[in-house]
Amino acid sequence: SGNNFEIIIIDDGSPDGTQEIAEQLEKIYGSDKILLRPRARKLGLGTAYIHGMKHATGNFIVIMDADLSHHPKFIPEFIRKQKEGNFDIVSGTRYKGSGGVYGWDLKRKLISRGANFITQVLLRPGASDLTGSFRLYRKEVLQKLMEKCVSKGYVFQMEMIVRARQLGYTIGEVPISFVDRVYGESKLGGNEIVSFLKGLLTLFATT
């Protein structure tokens, strides 16, 4: 790619064999490129970000899911976009340009679209996809946002963008194709939807 990089894999004891595959990749590409930083149990997405940041040596951090629902082919586009506008954050968007979602049923699509629509109306964040997690951050910006964000679960990604706008950080967007995981199950259920609505109202009241 011509870019200096490292891949930090945070596995929270998932039962899908992530750790074993990561160990194989480490043997192939070397421990300077593939950094395994597992944790014994699931401790939440926010703490996983903090855990990964401690080990990141670069000035920019790309965060993505490791199940290939986020395709690595978009990373060079994220980097180009960042350089083009000197953005603090570049966010992958499923809802703009050539972006899209593949493998979701109608119910899941409606929930995601609805969540984004309600958020756009209430918070006016200036970004088209607030619940996705495929993003590039300046390292110091990510650190600052992690200090400010208090949400967990589905609301966390949304709060990251809302707080970024609040703090005056610049955000670029790159259309991405999101493909639902082939293995494992989505964690979106009734409890997550309720916690999303609670978190949305909290953000509305505090921003």
**Uncertain spans, ≥5 residues at pLDDT below 50?**
none
Task: Look at the helices and sheets and give the structural class.
Answer: alpha/beta
Main sheet characteristics: 4 strands, mixed
Number of alpha- plus pi-helical segments: 7
**Strand order, sheet with most strands:** 3-6-4-7
Write the layout of secondary structure elements.
Elements: E1 7-9, H1 18-29, E2 34-36, H2 45-55, E3 60-63, H3 75-85, E4 89-93, E5 100-102, H4 106-123, E6 135-138, H5 139-148, H6 155-166, E7 171-175, E8 177-179, H7 190-206
Parallel strand pairs: 1-2, 4-7, 5-8
Antiparallel strand pairs: 3-6, 4-6
Helix pairs in contact: 4-7, 6-7
GO molecular function, one term: dolichyl-phosphate beta-D-mannosyltransferase activity
Subcellular location: Endoplasmic reticulum
Pfam families: Glycos_transf_2
